[in-house]
């Protein structure tokens, strides 16, 4: 049993960068090499900061002064974000796992989503005390549910391993027109990610042989080769969603 | 030159180069720089195959631990270490190997080095990418990665033969 678990790489904590010793070395190395892309990352964060600043409460004019102390009953917070830093990443392997510098101490749990300023990074795969492994978009069976355009068709995002800048969306029926340069967004059906986070844009499409489906080539909006700052998505309502989805009757 | 401390230092050098530099490079088009087999190639001719395989496993598993690929590098290097004595026997010079020489291009000549190391390295890379991708339907991807990595690593290894292992000639 132990052997089987060991072989299913990279599941064993001790031989991965989520373990204590390797994690510390990687953090040291990450501190050293993170300066190489500092300029680029700062620019991305500045842009995001500017957009977030627009939504800060103090930037809104308050029409009704009486409601200030009333608890917000219209909006419940559905997602909160835990900032994290990527300390180890690869983009040349067939399955690429990123190590981030937050773990169970910061409240990270398995299957949480991870996003970045420009896109989706992946899903938490394994959690250590101080570090976690992220199964990135650049893996074989990531299968994120996405939709195309503003109200477009739904599909599934996959990665074919050929280029770290391009992904593939499958499962879109070929009778639906798909235009180039349309954006791809997360659907959020599983409740892990918020809906409508941009992943990339359509750059090409071709028909799948023998099937009435498109195979759509997507240019990722995030460059995973230089990515450093990410946010772990804490989906506060996911338990309720999963409970509800369990109630769906199984009809043969 | 050929004492055990030199090899330990070389071991650390190869480990650091692979983990901290070459594993972090993304050359695109599936090209990676895979330097580890060169270390096994440099060990003396009469090294026991079990020692060779153990050293390969040790080097591979240490690199694996730092790149989240448990067993991938280790198994490739063990395979390399296993085939090395067989190929060395096949491509033996008429008078056998000179015990004072080590298996580098400057000692053994470029023809010998390119043929022996080329075959070993290609087999290792095929194993490496088949194991990494593990899907027959992605055969094209495996082929592309093998060819591109062979070219990229081949250039680096050829250059390293000029720079690091040519001291004997200068004397």
Write a structural description.
- With 252 residues, chain A is α+β, with helices and mostly antiparallel strands.
- Chain A has two domains: 10-55 and 78-139 and 226-236, Rod shape-determining protein MreC, domain 1 (Thrombin, subunit H, Beta Barrel); 144-220, Thrombin, subunit H (Beta Barrel), CATH 2.40.10.
- Chain A has four helices and twelve strands.
- Chain A has helices at 2-7, 20-33, 38-53, 238-246; strands spanning 79-88, 97-100, 113-116, 119-127, 132-136, 144-148, 154-158, 166-173, 183-186, 198-207, 213-220, 229-235.
- In chain A, the strands form two sheets. Chain A has a six-stranded antiparallel beta barrel. Chain A has a six-stranded antiparallel barrel with strand order 6-7-8-11-10-9.
- Residues 1-10 and 64-70 of chain A have low confidence and may be disordered.
- With 171 residues, chain B is an all-alpha fold.
- Chain B has one domain (4-170).
- Chain B is 69% helix and 0% strand.
- Chain B has eight helices and no strands.
- Chain B has helices at residues 4-21, 36-42, 49-65, 72-90, 105-108, 110-133, 139-163, 167-170.
- In chain B, helix 3 packs antiparallel against helix 4 and helix 6 runs antiparallel to helix 7 (139-163).
- Chain B starts with a helix and ends with a helix.
- The interface between A and B is medium-sized, with 32 and 26 residues.
């Amino acid at each position: 049993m132990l052997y089987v678990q060991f072989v299913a790489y990279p599941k064993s904590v001790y031989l991965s960068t989520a373990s204590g010793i390797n994690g510390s070395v990687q953090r040291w190395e990450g501190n050293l090499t993170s300066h190489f892309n500092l300029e680029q990352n700062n620019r991305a964060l500045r842009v995001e900061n500017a957009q977030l600043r627009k939504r800060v409460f103090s930037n809104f004019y308050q029409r009704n002064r009486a409601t200030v102390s009333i608890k917000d009953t219209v909006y419940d917070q559905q997602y909160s974000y835990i900032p994290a830093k990527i300390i180890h990443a690869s983009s040349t392997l067939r399955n690429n796992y990123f190590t981030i510098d937050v773990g169970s101490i910061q409240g990270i749990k398995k299957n949480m989503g991870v996003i970045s300023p420009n896109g989706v990074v992946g899903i938490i795969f394994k959690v250590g005390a101080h570090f976690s492994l992220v199964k990135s978009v650049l893996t074989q069976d990531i299968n994120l549910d996405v939709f195309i355009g503003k109200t477009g068709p739904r599909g599934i995002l996959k990665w074919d391993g050929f280029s770290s800048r391009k992904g593939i969306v499958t499962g879109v029926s070929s009778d639906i027109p798909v235009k180039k340069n349309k954006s791809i967004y997360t659907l959020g059906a599983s409740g892990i990610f918020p809906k409508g986070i941009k992943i990339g844009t359509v750059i090409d499409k071709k028909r799948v042989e023998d099937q009435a489906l498109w195979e759509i080539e997507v240019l990722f909006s995030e460059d995973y080769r230089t990515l450093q700052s990410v946010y772990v998505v804490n989906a506060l309502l996911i338990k309720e969603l999963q409970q509800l989805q369990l109630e769906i009757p199984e009809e043969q | 030159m050929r004492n055990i401390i030199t090899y330990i230092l070389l071991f650390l050098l190869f480990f650091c180069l692979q983990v901290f530099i070459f594993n972090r490079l993304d050359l695109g088009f599936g090209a990676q720089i895979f330097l580890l087999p060169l270390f096994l190639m440099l060990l003396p001719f009469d090294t026991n195959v079990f020692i060779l395989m153990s050293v390969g496993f040790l080097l591979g598993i240490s690199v694996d631990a730092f790149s989240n690929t448990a067993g991938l590098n280790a198994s490739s290097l063990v395979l390399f270490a296993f085939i090395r004595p067989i190929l060395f026997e096949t491509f033996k010079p008429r008078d056998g190997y000179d015990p004072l020489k080590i298996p580098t291009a400057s000692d053994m000549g470029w023809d010998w080095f390119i043929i022996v190391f080329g075959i070993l390295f290609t087999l290792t890379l095929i194993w490496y990418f088949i194991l990494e991708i593990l899907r027959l339907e992605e055969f094209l991807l495996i082929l592309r990665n093998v060819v591109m990595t062979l070219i990229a690593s081949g250039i680096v290894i050829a250059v390293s033969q000029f720079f690091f292992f040519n001291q004997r000639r200068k004397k």
